[in-house]
Amino acid sequence: MAYEELVRAYQDVAIRTAHLFAPDGDADDAVQEAFVKAHAALSRFRAGSPFRPWLLRIVANEARNRRRSAGRRAGLALRSAEDRRPGDVAPSPESAVLAAEQRDWLLAGVNALRDEDREVIAARFFLDLSEAEAAELLGVPRGTAKSRLSRALARLRSGLAGDDDGEVAR
Amino acid sequence: MIDRTSLARLSDAALERGLRELGTDLAVPASGPGIGDDAAARALRRIEAGADRPTRRLWPSGARPVRWALIAAVIALAILAAIAGAIGLGLPGIRIVPAPSGLPLGSSATVAPPASVRPGSSASPEFTGPALLGWNLGLGTSVEVARASAAVDFPVALPAASAGTGAPAAAWLLDGRLSLVWPTGPALPATQEAAIGLVLGEFRGSLDSGYFQKIIEPGTTLTVVTVGGTTGYWIAGTPHEIVFVDPSGIPVFDSHRLVGNTLLWAKGDVTYRLESALDRAAAIALAEAIRPEP
Fold it and tell me: Which 263-292 residues of chain B touch chain A by CB within 8 A?
């Protein structure tokens, strides 16, 4: 069945999305539910609109629903260098923008952001979506996604610079 | 000197690049066979079992008008595709036809279901990696580049060394359709995906059973070109959507994200699809340097 092919094509990015949007949720469970719901909702999918962000929006919603609310929220974690394998997109040392230490700080800065800010950064840079796709995934107009991203980046900068808890004037 | 506040002073472009780098280092599954298998398999079992609704029913009782409209549109396209096939516009596994009236310019193509994958040629079992190049494009599951030729039932073709592309960084497999992905480089400018310079798709096409529809949207141009003495198609402009129809007639929407302009051509019964930021002449020159591995 054709839907199976779609599922197999998008299962990896779906799992990654679930992890990024709810690091402490049950990603497998969220993705399973999202694929079932997407199948049931296929008739509501608008022809000519991109499929990927439509699917990932369902995944993100399912993941958020499974976020474990009790206690401190888990943040994203870094992978250690030895987990890498040849052919990874990992930048070569000479072309990398960030030193390993800086990457830790940047991650801490991202983790310190409020959900709304972290999600728009995750959509644009960790899922590598276009501005339009990120807006669709987040369920907001494109202009909103754009301004949300610039505010999120400003708050990230501010947090990195050591200003209070990352708040900046809006 | 490195300190934390230096990060805050990075240019916008450098900060964004840093975030993309960080993304490849996150300990979340990024790519590779098996990551989502469990969730996907459970979802498919539930759908198959009718957890939401029957999967094979052509006219669901709750069908909404929009669904009927979609089905009608797909049928119309199928008819157009058949007409185009009759006039001989196409490649093995692909037929390209003018778009239905109402679209300024465009066409649709049909692509046969992919050839079967050789048994026992599955990709490596482990899933450890951070993002392999092309992981987010919906190209299937990763297969080691060195084992790509063992995974398909046709000879894999690669650019000659003189083309200057170097070796592909990643290979992906989806139902016998192979996609090879190259990073950017001197011969391969960045596409809409900053890290990707070239995506080369290869699959065995046939016209006898089932098909895919490729709809080219307004803003997309289609030009008939010559690649190594045979007919090819140059598709440039707006990225387009793909609709495919399963054997029972259910239309399914796919959006293989195009990273750039596309050149389609065929050798024998293998169809090639080259996607890059190259201009038409450079893409054709590269295509002509692509030959099956000895």
Answer: none
CB contact under 8 A, B26 and A78: yes
Average pLDDT over residues B208-213: 34
Q: What distance in Å separates the CA atoms of residue A47 and residue A135, rounded to the nearest whole number? A: 18
Q: Does B2 touch chain A (CB under 8 A)?
A: yes
Nearest CA in chain A to B240: A48
Q: Which residues partner with B290 through β-bridges?
A: B159
Residue of B nearest to A107 (CA): B22
Q: Which residue has the higher pLDDT, B217 or A45?
A: A45
Which of B17, B255, B257, B258 should one mutate to test binding to chain A, selecting the residue with the greatest count of A CBs within 10 A?
Answer: B255
| Predicted pLDDT of residue A84 | 53
Least CB–CB distance from A161: residue in B8, B43, B195: B8
- B247 pLDDT band, cuts 50/70/90, is very low
Model confidence pLDDT, tens digit, residues A114-142 = 989 999 999 999 998 889 889 989 989 99
| Segment B125-142 mean pLDDT | 65
Residue A123 Cα, gap to closest chain B Cα (Å) = 10
Do B130 and A33 count as a contact with CB atoms less than 8 A apart? no
Helix, coil or strand: residue B111: strand
- Does the pLDDT at position B156 exceed 90? yes
Question: Do the chains contact at B20 and A40, CB–CB below 8 Å?
Answer: no
- ipTM of this model? 0.85
Write the burial class of residue A126 (CB in 10 Å: 0-12 exposed, 13-18 middle, 19+ buried): buried
- d(Cα B99, Cα B80) in Å, to the nearest integer? 8
The Cα-based distances of B170 to A8, A14, A81, B142, B146 in angstroms read: 18, 20, 19, 7, 10
A132–B contact, CB cutoff 8 A: no
